[in-house]
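Page 47, continued from p. 46.
Same chain as before, 354 aa.
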Amino acid sequence: GGHTARWLAREGIQRLVLTSRRGPGAPGAAELEAELVALGPSVELVACDVADPEALGALLDRLRREGPPLRAVFHSAGLVDDELIARLDPEQLRGPSLPKVGPAWQLHAATRDLELDAFVLYSSAAGTLAQIGQANYAAANAYLDALCQLRREAGLPGLSMAWGLWAGPSMATSVRAQLESQGVSAMEPAPAIAGLRRAVALGDAHVVLGAFDWAKVRFGGRGQLLAILQSEGVEAEEAAADSSFDLDALPRGERGPAIQAFVLDAVARTLRLSPEEADPKRSLTALGLDSMTSVELRDELRERGAFEVRLADLLRGVSVAELSEQLLAAYEGELDGDEVSEAPASPWLWCPAP
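Result:
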């Protein structure tokens, strides 16, 4: 929000009204106001919860009376509360929506009769590229994307600006290392704002702007979007890496080493480890597996190897070697005629028939 205000001031905007729930009492507000005033415009800091239709209506009525006319709206509030979807409680599910969904709709409803040049909602790439542990945050941002599409279809200005990772302090600070390991680089403010200016000029309802290394990007959900964006070389690399694992084609004596090599590769890919770092005798948690990456590893084992492993059991300290032995025992049990409906020998995993 601060970077946006500085950009607008440099663009020659004559009046800036910056709203937040605490207004002038927000941390850093006075310093930002002084910086903006030095750039030329008149600046007003207002304490207003834009999710409150009465408070927002009163503010807009005052601005109409005082003039000049309101010409642009930028909404940049947000909140993250990461958790695996199976563990989300109602409060966590609603949390990221509170500063986004209600305020965005109130701004839409209160300004749709005005002749605006721009109506910009700050969304996130998390709503387009599924990031593990951010289902609640992704849903809140997907709402903004849909609202701007609705506005465009009604002939109104609307841009949902889906940001990637920003450099410096941000809501993503706690997951910055994880995102960077997955090919999401941090954008410096200057090129990010340059991208914003271009996105506003494009006139599209939804723009994703970020610094992505498509050779490394591995989000919880891969869809057609990534396939379109990836170059042929990256697609070939991904296709080779994601090829299925077929135990049936191997002699029985070779299956154990093959499973361990497959699991070790999956662990190394998931945790972004070098072959030397991926020690098959160390526990997965010691190698760096956590509740977020365990989902990715489970999906990797399922999609490429048809192995089903429970998330909780991946986090109990099992090593690659131990996991491989369990997978081999479960697989050979199926071949020997064990009933699929019966509980497997292992209390923590089972393998469906190939």
